[in-house]
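Internal ticket - ligand job 369, pyridoxal-5'-phosphate:
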Amino acid sequence: MNTSSYPTWLEINLSAIEANTHYFIELTRTPLMGVIKANAYGFGSVEVGKTLLQAGAEWLAVARYAEAQTLREAGITAPILVFGLTMPEEVDAAIANDITLSMYSFEIANIYAQRTKAIGKPLKVHLKVDTGLGRLGVYADEVLSLARFALEKGKIEIDGIYSHLAMVDEGDFPETEHQTVLFSNVVQALSENGIRPRWIHLAGSSGAIYAPATRFNLVRSGCALLGIAPRNTAPIPKELRRVLSWKAHLASCKMIPMGCGVGYGHAYVTSNEEIIGVLPIGYSDGFRRLPGNEVIIDGKKVPVVGKMCMDMAMVRLPKIYPMGTEAVIIGSQGKATIDLEDLANRWKIGEVDVVSNISLRVPRVYTRD
Ligand SMILES: *Cc1c(COP(=O)(O)O)cnc(C)c1O
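stdout (structure tokens):
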């Protein structure tokens, strides 16, 4: 790994992703769908997708058709499910690339039916049920008629049925059990009518970990495999390893006299002669312009001062360091650690918000133990 040529970069430890995947499969004893939407939450969908499949995932899932096509173009042949809206113009390509689409309404089923008839080839779908999230999906009492509609109107193969939990990321709430029972009943009713999709799935990471009854015969997981806490209300389980570090090289370091403004608006004014370093990271990289930011330099935490810029941030240092000195934004250096959880708490957002908002211009570098 050569990071010496980057002002700032992310390090993604593929060994940690593998270890998390093995742990997750061992824990759930259920086939795994690796969720790598949004460029694998910013970690890089092709590299992460290949790693998950090698570590034992059977499926991959993304939010949009274009994300699935990227995986196919990279040579990934595993089954891929698209969770979200696939535009009518994209359906033919989905069929050609053997991508499985979500069928969550009569409107979309009608489009799928028309396209399969027009080109004479079948489309695989997973039927999406809304058991209480209030997002995509038909209600339980419409599932049978949607399934029949799809089977009659076009060459649609119902390969799976799924739903998504609303409350399990927040803690143990009765809604999770309600959704699980409702979903079971729907699957049962379909089966009694001769429709038995092969894949039945309800859980994301937190359901699979904290509510075993939600596992059915496939579990979907993104954050747990990427070392991101699945629950907003609990620290990451100790068996899961962190995957991501964020680093930067010091751009400059100089003594600034007492009483001088630092940065735009002179939002910070030196109260002594101070040593101020400049880091090549700013809010456009996904480093948020909020109070309390710190980074690690020379094994010690140092404060970000002044108003963060688009591409740069200033830090107050205890001594002069040379240009190129390594700073850590997320991760460890010496005895100091800034954990992903620290940033999430500092910015009052979820860990997944922190990582998925790190700009694409920050290079991703893949490491192993
Ligand atoms: C994002 C997503 C997941 C994965 O959730 P994690 O909490 O990251 O495991 C699973 N299912 C659906 C429908 C999703 O949108």
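Auto-summary: The chain has a mean pLDDT of 97. The chain has two domains: 14-226, 244-338.
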